[in-house]
Automatic annotation (TrEMBL):
Pathway: Glycolipid biosynthesis; lipid IV(A) biosynthesis; lipid IV(A) from (3R)-3-hydroxytetradecanoyl-[acyl-carrier-protein] and UDP-N-acetyl-alpha-D-glucosamine: step 6/6. It is an enzyme of class 2 (transferase). It comes from Camelina sativa. This is tetraacyldisaccharide 4'-kinase. Keywords: ATP-binding, Kinase, Lipid A biosynthesis, Lipid biosynthesis, Lipid metabolism, Nucleotide-binding, Transferase. Its EC number is 2.7.1.130. It comes from the Eukaryota.
Amino acid sequence: MEKVRKVVNEIAYTRDHSKSPALHRSLVPILTLASSLYRVALQIRRSLYRFSLVQKHRLPVPVISVGNLSWGGNGKTPMVEYISQFLVDSGLSPLILTRGYGGGDEAKMLKRHLRGVPAKIGIGANRAATAAWFFEK
C-alpha cells in the first residue's frame, strides 16, 4: 500500500508526465477520471445538504474536526491527542468521536495515551448518535 501511495503522490505533484515512467503515465487518465467522479459526488452531496434533502446533525457543544482525505500516517491521531490534552489542561473534558477503522486500533491507542485524563472516546460510524449517547449518559 505504501508503494501505491508513493506513486499516486508522485503523479499528483508532477506537472509534466512526459518523462514519467510508463506505469505512471498510464495511471494519469484513471486518476483524472476518479478525481472528476469524486468532484461530482461532492457537488451532489453539497446540493443534498443545501436543499435539506439530507438531515444535518448539530451538537450542542463546539466541535473540532481533525481529518482529511489522505491515507493514514499523516499525524491525525497524535493531533487529536495534543488537542485533547490542551483542552484537559484548560479545564475541559473532551469527547473524541471516531469511526473505529482497523478494528479500533486508533481508539485503543488514544485510550492508552490518554489514560488518567478526563477525555471520553466514542466509537461508531454514526458519530452524531454516538455523541448523543454520551450526552444522555
